[in-house]
Amino acid sequence: MNYSFNLGVAVSSLLICIVNLIYTFIMGRTDKVQNKLFICILCILSINSITGIASAVIGLYPDRVADPEYASEVSRYAYFVTHTALCPVFYYYVSRISLVSTRLGNWKVALLSLPFFVTELMALINPLTHWVWSRELNLEFRREWGEILIYIAAALYYVMALIVFTRSWTYIAGKRKVAIVFSFVLVAAGVFVQLLDKNLKVEVLAESIGFTGAMMAVENEDDRIDFGTMFYNRIALSYDVGGCMKHHRKLSVIVLRINNYEVINRLAGNEETNVLSDILSGFLTSLVKRYYVYVPNDSTFVMTLYDKPGKEVDQLVDKLSARMEEPWEYQDFSIQISSTILVTQMPEQIREVSELFYMIDSPVPQKELKPVMKEHDLDYIMRRQAVEKAIIRGFTDNSFEVYFQPTYHIDGRIHGAEALTRMNDKELGRIFPDEFIPVAEQTGMIDDLDDYVLEEVCKFIRSGIPQKYGIVNINVNLSVLQCMKPGFIRNINRIVEQYGIKKRSINFEITESIAADDYRILSKVIKQLKDDGYLFSMDDYGTGYSNVSAIFSLNLDVIKIDKSILWGAEKSKLGMIVLENTIRMIRQMGKKILVEGVETKEQIELLRKLGVDYLQGFYFSKPIPKDEFIQLIEKDARIHRV
Ligand code: C2E
Ligand code: MG
Ligand code: MG
Questions:
Q1: d(CA 146, CA 396)
Q2: 401 pLDDT exceeds 80?
Q3: Rounded distance, CA 462 to CA 501, Å?
Q4: Which of 46-60, 542-556, 581-595 has the lowest mean pLDDT?
Q5: Is 434's C-beta closer than 6 angstroms to any atom of ligand 1?
Q6: Pairing of strands 506-511, 231-232
Q7: What end-to-end distance do the CA atoms of the chain give, in Å?
Q8: Identity of the highest mean pLDDT range in 138-142, 354-358, 368-372, 473-477
Q9: Residue 158: its pLDDT value, please?
Q10: Does the pLDDT of residue 607 top 70, yes or no?
Q11: Res 273: pLDDT
Q12: Cα 542 to averaged position of ligand 2 atoms, centre (Å)
C-alpha cells in the first residue's frame, strides 16, 4: 500500500472540502434544504478525508500509534458509516435541485430510502457481524459481501440521480447542467479507480473536486436572484415551476399584483431601491421562506407553496389579503397599496408555465376583477389559452372569415365598408374579435391575421364589384403594434401591389388608444403610407387618453367617433356635451367625421343636425359575410337608381 500517496490525496481532499465549507458559510448559502444537503455532502467528504489521513498516518508510522490495529479499525468504521450515506444524499440533493418531491410520507419515497437504511445499518453493526469488512494481518482489510451490497445501493442512487437529472434537463440552467455532469463523471471515475485497485484511495478526492464544481455553479445562485429585491427572479420561477410540472409535483401559487406600483414608486422611491420590496419583503418572508418568493416583474410577487394542504393555503391567502387592506408605514409615509391576489393550484388548475406567466403578466379583464381571485375566477386564463390554440389552428382550419359592415353618407347613400374578422372554431364555435384580437396581438399572430384580412379585401376590390356599386374604398383595421414593426410598410405594399389595385381603395384604421411616446414612430409610418396613396382613419376616437393635438398632426382623412360617445349622449346631459363638442372640434379642424354604433333613427337625426359626414351601425347593417354584403349593395344601388 502506498501510504504517502494516499496521505497526500486525503490531505488535498480535506483542504478542498474545508474551503468549500468556509465559502458556503461566508456566502450565507445555508438556509435552503438544498444548501443543507450540500453542507452534509461536504461534511461526509471531510470525515472521509480525515479517516483517509488517519489510515495513511497509521500505515506510515505504526510504531508511533499506541494501538494501530484498533485505530485503523475505528477509522475504517467512521469511513463506512459516513460514506454509505454519500450517494443517497447526493440523490436527495439532485432531486431537490430538480424539484422532485422528496417527502417521506410518500410511499414511493419511503421505498426508495430502504436500500440506504439497510446498508447504513450493515455498516453500523459491522463490528459485530463483519458482513462489510473483516480484518486481516498487517492492518489490511478484506472486502466482504456487504461491501458489494453497499456499492450496489450506491450505484442505484447514482443511477436514480442521473434519471432525475436527465428528466429535468430542460429546466436546469446551462452552467448548472455542466457542473452537475462534471460531478457525476468525477464521482463515477473515483469509484471506478478505487474499485479496480483498493489501494488507490482517490474516490474521496474525485468527489470533493466534483462537488466544488457544484458549489460554483449550483449553490451560487447569482443568475437566479433579482438583486433589486434579493428574491428569485423570473427565470428562476420559470425553471422551478417547469421542473415541478415535469416531475408531476403539485404546488400552489399565490400571485400578488400591485396595481398602484407607479404611484408608490413616484411617491417614495428613488432609483436605487425597490420601494415595494422594501415595504413588503419583511411581511412576505413572515408568510413563507425567502426562497419561495419570486419577483417576475417590478410590480408582482409570486409565492410558491409545495405540499401544503388547501386549508393552509387559504389561511395564508386570508392573512395576506387582510394585511393588504391596511396601510403600510414607509419612511415618513403611510402608503396604501392596491393589490390583486391570484391563487391557483398547479397542475390541477393551471398546467403549463406559459399559463402561469400569462396569469402573472396580463391584466385581469375588468369585469372579472376582484381583490382575491381563485378557482373559477381564473377561468379567463384557460379560456385565453384555448383561444390562443384556436388562432394557431385557425390558419390551417380556415376558421377566419372577413365580414363587411357598410358605412353610409349622412343622406343614406352607401359610402364604403369596414372589413371585420370573424372566427369560427371547430371547438370553441364563434369567437368575436374583441376576444381574439388582443390574444393575437400578444402572441404576435396578429401579423398573419392582418395580412390575411388585407389580402381578402384586395381580392374583393380586384373583383370590381365594390366599385360597380359606388364603393370607392374599404376600411381595414390595423394593429398599432404591427405598424411599428420594421418592414411593415414594405409588407403592406407588397400585398397591395400583388393584386394590382389602387392604393386609394384601401382606408386603414388605427385605434386612438396608444401611448403618446409612440406617436413619433407612428406618424412617420402613417405619413409614408399616405404619401404612397392610402387613406387613413382614426378609429374609436374618444376612448383613449391621447394628446389631441398629436392626433391631429397625424393628418388623417376620417375620424371615427367611438360608439360609447354616441351612446353616452343619450344617457346624460354631460354625455351630450361631450358628443357635441367632440364633433364641433373635429369639424373645425377640417376633418371628415364618421360615427359608429348608430342603432336608431333618432340617433341619425341627432347626428345629421350636428353635421356628421358618415354613419356606421346596426341600424343599417351588422357586419355580414361577403356574399350577403354584395346582395346588400346591389339592392341599395337599385333603390337609389330608381
Ligand atoms: P372597430 O374597428 O371599432 O369595429 C367596429 C365594431 O363595432 C365592430 O365590432 C362592429 O361589429 C361593432 N359595431 C358596429 N356598429 C355597431 C352598432 O350599431 N352596435 C353595436 N353594438 N356594435 C356595432 P367587432 O366586429 O366585434 O370588432 C371589434 C374590434 O375588433 C374592432 O373595432 C377592431 O378594432 C377589431 N378588429 C376586428 N377585425 C379586425 C382585424 O381584422 N384586424 C384588426 N387589427 N382588428 C380587428
Ligand atoms: Mg375599426
Ligand atoms: Mg371602432
A1: 64
A2: yes
A3: 6
A4: 542-556
A5: yes
A6: unpaired
A7: 117
A8: 473-477
A9: 93
A10: yes
A11: 67
A12: 13
H or E stretch covering 222: none
The rounded Å distance from CA 561 to ligand 2 centre is: 10
Backbone φ/ψ region at 542: left (φ over 0), alpha (ψ -120 to 50), beta: left
Q: Which atom of ligand 1 is nearest to the CA of 479?
A: 44
What are 328's three cell numbers?
A: 403600510
Please report which confidence band the pLDDT of residue 639 belongs to, taking 50, 70 and 90 as the band edges. Answer: confident
* Atom of ligand 1 at shortest range from CA of 596: 15
Distance of CA 533 from the midpoint of ligand 1 (Å):
25
Among candidates 262, 199, 219, which has minimal Cα distance to 97? Answer: 219
Give yes or no for a contact between 475 and 466, defined as CB atoms under 8 angstroms apart: no
**HEC profile of 507-562:** EEEEECCCCHHHHHHHHHHHHHHHHHCCEEEEEEECCCCCCHHHHHHCCCCEEEEC
pLDDT at residue 2 in the model: 84
Cell numbers representing residue 349 in the block: 388548475
Q: Ligand 1 centroid vs 630 CA: distance in angstroms?
A: 20
456 lines ligand 1 (CB under 6 A): no
What integer pLDDT is reported at residue 432 of this predicted model?
93
> With bands split at pLDDT 50, 70 and 90, how would you rate the model's confidence at 367?
confident
Distance CA 190, CA 182 (A): 12
- Which residue has a Cα nearest atom 24 of ligand 1? 433
Task: Answer yes or no: is the C-beta of 432 below 6 A from any ligand 1 atom.
Answer: yes
Q: Residue 156: what are its φ and ψ, rounded to 5°? A: -60, -50
Q: pLDDT tens for residues 107-130? A: 888 888 999 999 999 999 999 999
Q: Around ion ligand 3, which residues have CB less than 5 A away?
A: 539-540
Tell me, in angstroms, the distance from the centre of ligand 3 to residue 213's CA: 60
Quote the CA–CA distance of 129 and 428 in Å, as a whole number.
70
Ligand 1 pocket test target in 477, 480, 565, 604 with most atoms within 8 Å of CB: 477
Tell how far the Cα of 572 is from the centroid of ligand 2, in angstroms: 26
> Per the structure block, which three cell numbers stand in for 146?
456487504
**615 bridge partner residues:** 408, 595
Cα of 405 from ligand 1 centre, angstroms: 9
The DSSP code for 485 is S
Query: Residues 354-384, buried b or exposed e (16+ Cβ, 10 A)?
Result: ebbbbbbeeebeeeeeeebbbeebbebbeeb
- Indicate the DSSP class of residue 351: -
CA gap 206, 185 in Å, rounded: 9
* Ligand 1 mutation pick, 400, 407, 420, 475, max ligand atoms within 8 A of CB: 420
Least confident of 129-143, 234-248, 540-554, 588-602: 540-554
**Dihedral sign of CA atoms 340, 346, 351, 353 in order:** positive
229 phi/psi in degrees, rounded to 5: -115, -15
